Amino acid sequence: xxxxxxxxxxxxxxxxxxxxxxxxxxxxxxxxxxxxxxxxxxxxxxxxxxxxxxxxxxxxxxxxxxxxxxxxxxxxxxxxxxxxxxxxxxxxxxxxxxxxxxxxxxxxxxxxxxxxxxxxxxxxxxxxxxxxxxxxxxxxxxxxxxxxxxxxxxxxxxxxxxxxxxxxxxxxxxxxxxxxxxxxxxxxxxxxxxxxxxxxxxxxxxxxxxxxxxxxxxxxxxxxxxxxxxxxxxxxxxxxxxxxxxxxxxxxxxxxxxxxxxxxxxxxxxxxxxxxxxxxxxxxxxxxxxxxxxxx
Length: 296
Hints:
This protein is mainly alpha-helical. Helix content is 75%, strand content 0%. Among the domains are: 3-118, Up-down Bundle (Methane Monooxygenase Hydroxylase, Chain G, domain 1); 207-295, no CATH class.
């Protein structure tokens, strides 16, 4: 971003800081209420000061003008001091190091990540020499005490031919793994295709299976609806006793065939039993198809 952007950020942050100082002075002048109200006030000021600190730290880090940097640095140090004071007041009020700002964050439409206080970048950039001097002193102390820093293992030189062979071996191994993975993929595809083809030969198509089920279900429905009525409708031809005996020998009573020598007598004797058998057959078929349709 350009200098204009950070100048605008600094101006907006300074205006927010001035308005916050005015509100804080007004709240301090009011008589104290309950501890909950005081904590809500301190937490609100704390969150707003943290937001001002984050904006000032970004503006100070990216600002190029030296005079502006000096001014921003003074304001930034003052804001950090005020944050520490508010934190101390909240700790003394609640007697706890950790506080919950969920309701306040929701009212201010902020996220918990915006409460993080980053380490100012100028702590490292402007104190590089001090940090290096501390590292030298620490290394000297460790050397005098005999602890010392861990020594690096000496690197072993390798001839050019051995290095080329090692690289070729690693490359061939990599290509072999890729080839094995590719062949495994092809084998799985062929296995799935062969398996699906075998299953397709055993099991009919879904469309043909649906047609067969519909045909059977419709036939069962027609038998259930019109089967018993055929026996009572006039003009319907009932099969003779000989045909009935030929189709279903077990339907007639034992010894009934001996009484069929006379056609009229056979018809008179077999007609009630034949009607009972046919009605029971229609009822059984209707029950079967009803169960089949309910399961389907």
